[in-house]
Specification:
The structure is a homodimer of 472-residue chains. Chain A has 472 residues and is of the alpha+beta class. Chain A folds into two domains: 288 residues, Zn peptidases (Aminopeptidase), CATH 3.40.630.10; 123 residues, Alpha-Beta Plaits. Chain A is 33% helix and 21% strand. Chain A has a six-stranded mixed sheet, with helices on both faces. At the A-B interface, strand 9, strand 10, helix 6, helix 7 and helix 9 of A face strand 9, strand 10, helix 6, helix 7 and helix 9 of B.
Chain lengths: 472, 472
Amino acid sequence: MPKQTVEEALRHADINVDASLNRLFQLLRIPSISCDAHYTRQCHEAASWLANELSGIGFDASIRATTGNPVVVGHSKQAAGPHILFYGHYDVQPAEPLDEWESQPFEPTLRAQPNGETHIVARGASDDKGQLLTFIEACRAWKATAGRLPVGVSMFFEGEEESGSPSMQAFLDKFEQELLADVMLLCDTALWNDSVPAITVMFRGLLEEEIRVTCANRDLHSGAYGNAARNPIQVLAELIASLRGQDGKVAIEGFYDNVVELDSTVRDELLKLNFDAEQFLAAAGLSQSAGDVSYSVMEQIWTRPSCEINGIAGGYCGVGLKTIIPCSALAKVSFRLVDGQDPESIRSKFRSHICARTPRDCKVQFTGLTGSPASVIGPRSPYLDCARAALRQEWGCESVLIGSGGSIPIVSIVRQRLGLESLPIGFARADNHHHSPNEKYDLYTFQKGIRSWIRILAELSRCTTDRVEAEP
Amino acid sequence: MPKQTVEEALRHADINVDASLNRLFQLLRIPSISCDAHYTRQCHEAASWLANELSGIGFDASIRATTGNPVVVGHSKQAAGPHILFYGHYDVQPAEPLDEWESQPFEPTLRAQPNGETHIVARGASDDKGQLLTFIEACRAWKATAGRLPVGVSMFFEGEEESGSPSMQAFLDKFEQELLADVMLLCDTALWNDSVPAITVMFRGLLEEEIRVTCANRDLHSGAYGNAARNPIQVLAELIASLRGQDGKVAIEGFYDNVVELDSTVRDELLKLNFDAEQFLAAAGLSQSAGDVSYSVMEQIWTRPSCEINGIAGGYCGVGLKTIIPCSALAKVSFRLVDGQDPESIRSKFRSHICARTPRDCKVQFTGLTGSPASVIGPRSPYLDCARAALRQEWGCESVLIGSGGSIPIVSIVRQRLGLESLPIGFARADNHHHSPNEKYDLYTFQKGIRSWIRILAELSRCTTDRVEAEP
C-alpha cells in the first residue's frame, strides 16, 4: 500500500468531515433504545439507515431478523489478503432522566467549549453511533479515493448491545460461516487520554437480575398496620445492605471463589499507566473509592467483580407523602464479572444469598436477565502489532494496553463461536457521559478516529492471512 | 325530643337512601387529591360541592381560603341547648397504583358481593367522603322532617387531611371564635365489627420526612465506575436497614425516651376486646407480626410508635435494565407517634441518626413534611355517654372504646386551640382498603351511619350546655 494512497484517503476524510458529521446526526436522531419495546420501530429504522449507508459505499448489505432487534450485515470481500470483521451496535441506552439534559437527547447539537473543543451532544453520540461511524467513514474514504478497501471487510451491527446482546448467540449459530474472518475489530472503547490511543485487552462480564419483594396482599394504611405489617421496602433495603460489606467487598458467599487473579505481567503493564485515581473520582464529583481497599481503584474497576443496584422502586414517590405500607418493592441488580466467574453460578449464589435472608411473610421473585462472562484478550498477535503501528503513525506516540470495567458481550461470544481474537480500539473519552444525561463525543476524536481506521486498514493489509486462533 | 320525631327522621333517611347515594357518587367523582398540586382545582370543586349541599339544607355555608386547599364552614345555630362542631375532610389519597383498581378510582361503582353485601367502590368511598356524608344526610333527614336540628350544629370540612393538615393551625387562629362549641364530632374512624360500633379514644401522631442521598455528580456507567463509585441506592438501603432492629424496635437513639405507657385501666379495656391479631394479619395476607414482640399486635398498632418507609425511588426501573450507578436516590419516611413523643424532637433524632451513618462522598438532603402529635381522649364526658346511648338504640348493643393507629391531626389541634373534646365515631370497616386500590364503603354501614347520627343528634340535645373542657 503506497504511502500516497493512504494520504489521499486521509485528505478525503478531512475535507468531507461536515458530510460525515451530517450522517452521524441523521443516525443520532433515531431513538433506537433497545431495552424498551416501545422503541422497536426506531431500532429497525436505525438498522435500515445503516444498511443503506453500507450499500451506498459498495458493501453487499442486508438486514437479518433475530428474535429481537435486527442485525445489519455488510460485506466487501477481496480475492486475497486478510479479512476483517468489524462489530458495532446501533442501539442506545434510555435517555432518562430527561430533565437533566441541556438539549434534547435525540436532537444532536454541536456545542463549542471555552477550551476550544467542540462537543457532539446526543444520546449515542459516543456509545456507539459516533464510534461506529468512524469506521464506516474510513471505509468511505478508501472507496472514494482508492476505489477499494486495503483489506476485505465484513461489518455487523447489532441492536441489543445495551440489553446484553440476547440474540447474538442465535444469530451467530445461523450466520457463523458468513462471518468467518481473521480478526474482529470493534470501537466501543476509549482513548487512554486525549493524545494517547489505547487497545483494550480485558472486559468485565455482566449479569443482570431483577428482584421483587412482596409482603401484604395490597398496599396497607400505615396507620392501621404500621409496626405489625412487614414493609417490603424495609426488607428490600436490608437485603441490599447485606450485599456489600463495610470493607467494600461483595458479601455473597463464594462470590470470589473462582476469580482468576490478574497475570502479573499484565498487572505491571497496567500499573505503568499511572492511572490517576483521584482525577478519575473527581470527574464524577467523588473523592473516595467505595470499593475494596486492598486493591487500587484501577484494579477495582477493571479487574475486580462488582455488584451494583441500578434501580429501586416501591410505594409512592410522587408529590407529598402517601401514608402506605406498599405491598411490594423492586430492585434492579447487576454484577460486573471478571475472569473465572461463571454468570449462572453467580446468579445462583446471589439468589441463595437473598432467599436465606428473606423473612417470613415475604415472597421474593427473581427475573433473570442476561449474563455474559468476562473476556481477556491475548496480548500477542500480528494484527495487534499492525494496529499499534498504524496508531503510532496517526498519534505520534505508542498506544497503550488497558482494561475496561464495562462489558462487551460480543468479544467473548465471538471468541467462543468463531475463534476470533478481537482488537477493541475506540476514540471515546472518559468524560463522554456514557449512559448519562448530556452524552457527548468530541468532534476532534471523531475525526482522529476516522483517520486512525484509515491507517489501520492499510497496515492490516500487511498481515498474513493465517487465521489467528484465540488463546484457550 | 319525642321518640316519634326521631322515628320520622329515620324513616325519611331510609326511604331516601338512593338520593343520598347519588349525592355521594357526585362527590366521589371529584378527584380531590390534596398531596399533589395538580389536583388543586378539583379540591376547590369538592369544597364548592359541599358548601352547596350545606346551603341546600339550610346551613349558613361558605368557603374559607387558606394557604392550601379551602375549608368549608357551615352553621345551623340555635338559641339554646348544646352546640356541636362536626369535622370531616373532602380530600383523598392518590389513587396509585392505578393498574390494581378493578374499576376507575374516580368513577364510583356499586358492586354486589356473593355474601349479599353491596360495596361502594371508589377512592374516598370510605375515607372520608362516604363517612362525612352520613352526618350531612342525618342533618338533611332532621331538617326534612322536624324542620330543624335537635341541637345547634357547625360543620367544617378541610381539604388537606391526607397531607397532614398544614393549614389547620392558621385557619383556627383566624376562625377560632366562630367555631366555639361544646364538643367536636368526627367520623374518620371505624366500627369495631359489623355489629358493634366504636368510639376511638386514641390516635397516633404522624411525622413525615423525605430523604435524598446524592453521591456522584451524574448517573455513572456501572462498568466504568462499578466498585469505585459509591452507589446512593446502596447507601440509602443501608440507612433504611439501620432504622429497625431485628427485634422489630425502631433503632433510632432516644426514639422511645418520652413515650407515655398506656394507662392500665384503658389497657385492660382494650384487652377485653379480644383483638384477633391472626385475623387482622390474615386480612392483609400476612401471618406474622413484624413489630416489637414484647407487645401484642393490638398494642403495636395502637399504642406503640412506628417508622415506615412509604416510598423509595432511584435509578432506572423501567423495562429491562440500565447499567448505571445513579447519582441519587430518594425515600419517603413516616413515623406514627404516641403520647409523649414530640414530632420535632423525633424529626431531629431521625436526622441525627441518618447523618451519623452517612458515608463520605454522600450528601443527604432532608425535606421536612408535616408533623402532628398523638392524641388521647378522656373517657369520661356527658357527650360520650349520650353518644353511647344513641349507638345502643341503633345497634342494640354496647359500643366499645378502641384505639387507632392512624392519625387525625385535627383532634389534637382542636383540643389545643379550642379546648374541645372530640368524639370520633365512624362506620368504616377494617377491610375498606383505605389508602389502597379498590377502596370501598359498605352500603349497609352508610345507611347505619346516617341512622346513628340521627339518633346521636337527638340524644346530644339532652346534654347540659356547660362547656366540657378537655383534660389537661
